[in-house]
Amino acid sequence: MNKKPISKKHVVVSFVCGAVLFSGLSAVAADTSISAMVSKATFFAFGERQAAPSVTGSNGAKSPAALTYNGTTYVPVRAIGDMLDVPVYWDASNNSISTGSAKTIVKSADGTVHGSIDLMEEKGGVRVKVSLMNLPPGPHGIHVHQMPIKNNDFATALGHFNPTRDEHGHHNPKGTHIGDFEKNLMATTKGTAVQEFFLEGANLKPDSPMSVAGRSIIIHAAADDQKSDPAGNSGDRIAGGNIPK
Asked: Torsions phi, psi of 194, nearest 5?
């Protein structure tokens, strides 16, 4: 009888089964130190990348407490994503994981959900696909801001993401910010907005100075004139969400 070679698919399936078992056991072992003979390792905990000590376990050091969360772990999710070359993103503000794209949940200041925005890294930048509802009809400025939103307070997002220290707007000879979208978000008379953008020069890499991961997207009440610094006279911040990382 001929034996079939083990494929990558078999390896992944076996890994998933082991990951499920490990996740269940981690609740029991949450208070137990874990020994690992490694000089350098990276743990993915709470969906975020956290470096372990240079030596883990051999000198009595315990593994990071954040390795487990509610009796489970995000290590297998990240690892499987790496094996299949599928990016995995953790949204700490909504306690959710997205794969393939960084799914940004958009809310108003009172917590009402308006939909989502998907960000996907491509050659030369980041593709942004917007699918929102219940917005005021008409054009709205939309930008990536420097910091994540805290407690639905849009002021905590600070200014536009601008690592190149340019001015605002795609019609500004001194612009543009990396976080400037090339056109306005258009909401229909029913308040829906389904639109696609491209953030040139941006990426979703965890340690890149041009990365928009872990920042926020803000939607404004009025149209962006694409030339006035610092925000295109686009008015109040009416909705937004944090970009997972």
From this structure: -120, 110
